[in-house]
């Protein structure tokens, strides 16, 4: 006997977003967080090294538009050129997320939930943050050495790196910190949404949206910034210490934005939904 005519039958394929409830997302984050925190140190290092290299490729793709746009149309200014380059930057973010490598800022939600629930220790979370951060920065630095070698990149592309570094390294500390808070929040929102949306097209659109926002708005994401500052800092008249100081301050802002503005409130939201 068939189903009643007044009942609407929906299959998984008819629900393209397959959205989950907040408490279900938190539960899934907790389970995945345990897996992330149980990995070996070598696994974390290798995954984050690859992530640093892959996000650098996203920076290269974006600078292949930003630099020539600045050179051909100076009236655009840096932000006009960044708005164009942002169309290509999500390539790198897609490499990282689809390819299962890792950025430091991806760990502001999933493993934090596991620690919040008492399933893993704070020490394991701090170790994950430290190893992924160092490995991301090293991956960016190694890739930048290749890109900075003579005749690897054309002058128009290098122009984009130089203009980016000159602007970023001249930011006042408060402006940098606040920009980094927004960047950390944006990346953690992306992590949350990727847990909520299961359809591959929806996930790719979310990655693209977050990647465009990070680059086009020139937000201070510590690893994304490192991938481009390592190439452009010398020609902008700054030192390696300036770059490292920028990365450290941006990382602190990313942590505040990711955990304080997103993870904390999402956990509270999930608790209220469960009630």
In short:
The longest helix has 35 residues. The chain has 275 residues and is mostly helical. It has 11 helices and no strands.
Structural overview:
It is built from 11 helices and no strands. The chain has a single domain (19-274), classed as Glycerol uptake facilitator protein, CATH 1.20.1080. It is globular. Helix 1 packs across helix 5 and helix 2 (41-72) packs across helix 3. It has 275 residues and is mainly alpha-helical.
Q: Which overall shape is indicated by the principal axes computed on the Cα atoms?
A: globular
* Domain tally: 1
Main β-sheet: number of strands, strand sense, barrel status?
A: none
Q: How many H/I helical runs?
A: 11
- State the name of the first-level CATH class: Mainly Alpha
Oligomeric form of this entry? single chain
Helix amount, in percent? Answer: over 70%
Structural class: mainly alpha
- Let me know the average pLDDT: 90
CATH superfamily: Glycerol uptake facilitator protein
* CATH topology (level 3) name: Glycerol uptake facilitator protein
Radius of gyration: 20 Å
């Amino acid at each position: 006997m068939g189903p009643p005519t007044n009942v609407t039958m929906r299959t998984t394929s008819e629900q393209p977003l397959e959205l989950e409830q907040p408490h279900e997302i938190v539960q899934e984050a907790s389970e995945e967080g345990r897996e992330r925190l149980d990995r070996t140190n070598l696994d974390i290092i290798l995954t984050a090294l690859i992530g640093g290299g892959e996000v650098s490729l996203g920076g290269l793709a974006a600078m292949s538009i930003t630099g020539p746009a600045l050179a051909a149309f100076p009236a655009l200014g840096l932000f006009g050129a960044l708005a164009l380059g942002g169309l290509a930057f999500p390539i790198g973010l897609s490499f990282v997320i689809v390819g299962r490598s890792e950025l430091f800022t991806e760990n502001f939600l999933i493993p934090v939930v596991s620690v919040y629930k008492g399933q893993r220790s704070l020490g394991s979370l701090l170790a994950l943050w430290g190893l992924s951060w160092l490995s991301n920065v090293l991956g960016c630095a190694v890739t930048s050495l290749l890109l900075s070698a003579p005749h690897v990149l054309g002058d128009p592309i290098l122009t984009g790196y130089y203009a980016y570094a000159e602007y970023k390294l001249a930011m006042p500390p408060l402006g940098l910190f606040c920009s980094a808070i927004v960047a950390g929040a944006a990346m953690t929102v992306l992590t949350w949404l990727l847990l909520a949306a299961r359809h591959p097209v929806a996930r790719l659109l979310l990655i693209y949206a977050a990647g465009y926002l990070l680059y086009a708005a020139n937000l201070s994401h510590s690893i994304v910034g490192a991938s481009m500052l390592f190439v452009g800092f010398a020609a902008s008249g700054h030192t390696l210490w300036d770059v490292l100081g920028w990365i450290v301050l941006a990382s602190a802002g990313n942590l505040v934005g990711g955990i304080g503005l997103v993870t904390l409130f999402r956990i509270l939201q999930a608790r209220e939904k469960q009630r």
